[in-house]
Amino acid sequence: MTTYSDSDVKELVRERYGKLAQSATVSNAAADCCATDDCCGDSERSTPNRLYAVDQIQGLPSEALIASAGCGNPTAIGDLNAGETVVDFGSGGGIDCFIAAKAVGEQGKVIGIDMTPDMINLARGNAANLDMPNVEFHLAEMENTPIDGASVDVIISNCVINLAPDKDAVFREAHRILKPGGRMFISDMILTAPLPAHATDDAENWVACLSGAEPQEIYLGRMRQAGLQDIEIVGDKPWEGKEEWASRVHSMNIKAHKR
Fold first, then answer.
1. Annotated domain spans of the chain
2. For residue range 104-115, what is the model confidence (pLDDT) as tens digits?
């Protein structure tokens, strides 16, 4: 069994998603990098219209759509209210941040967190083009954000936490920054059955959201251990990626609260 250090995994993820961000600024960029099996979302990633309502993505920059590497629509799992502060763990090109910004309005605030410099630059450019002053992006890891404790109403995350080598730290950070009564809305890749060793040993499968995917009971258990409560799976469908693993890897929508 091959063992990869946390830094190895993060560097691989940062490199591949950096390429996706770079390709998003080039015409016909969907043919590059993550339009193959190399990044999260696979066939779903290249067609955001399958994950979002037309009115949600209408008017968003094509760069944000191309750079979308999600497996779900976390903004559709629960209500976002006017004036709330929302944080997106793994914000990428900003698609979920911009959708959230429409929901919270000018009195609200949306903060994107991403560890890939090229993604942050792309997202900031998209925000400027959209003239959304209530959206900001920070270069940081989900495990260690610059956000004050108990200051956030909602955390969203779209097919990113599975990429984190230390998911316990991610959920602890989520609990730290959420206000009492705050909510977390997640779309992520979850295992319903173990993957073969040759799949999890492949470093490339970290980027494809396979090697880092965990069984449902382990993933939800980490959320509980971090202090999140009222955890509920509100959506579950097989992954539309490699056929031999489709029955073992599901895209799930999960919501939780901090009491």
1. 6-257
2. 999 999 999 999
For 165-200, what is each residue's pLDDT tens digit? 999 999 999 999 999 999 999 999 999 998 888 777
Nearest to 149 by CA among 167, 184, 174: 174
- Render pLDDT for 9-47 as a digit per residue (tens, 0 to 9): 899 889 988 988 888 876 444 444 444 445 665 444 445
Kindly report the pTM of this predicted structure. Answer: 0.91
- Where b means 16+ CB within 10 Å and e means fewer, 149-176 reads eeebbbbbbbbbbbbbbebebbbbbbbb
d(CA 239, CA 248) in angstroms, rounded, equals 8
> CB–CB of 91/123 below 8 Å?
yes
CATH of 6-257, one of 3.40.50.150, 1.10.760.10, 3.40.605.10, 3.40.50.1000: 3.40.50.150
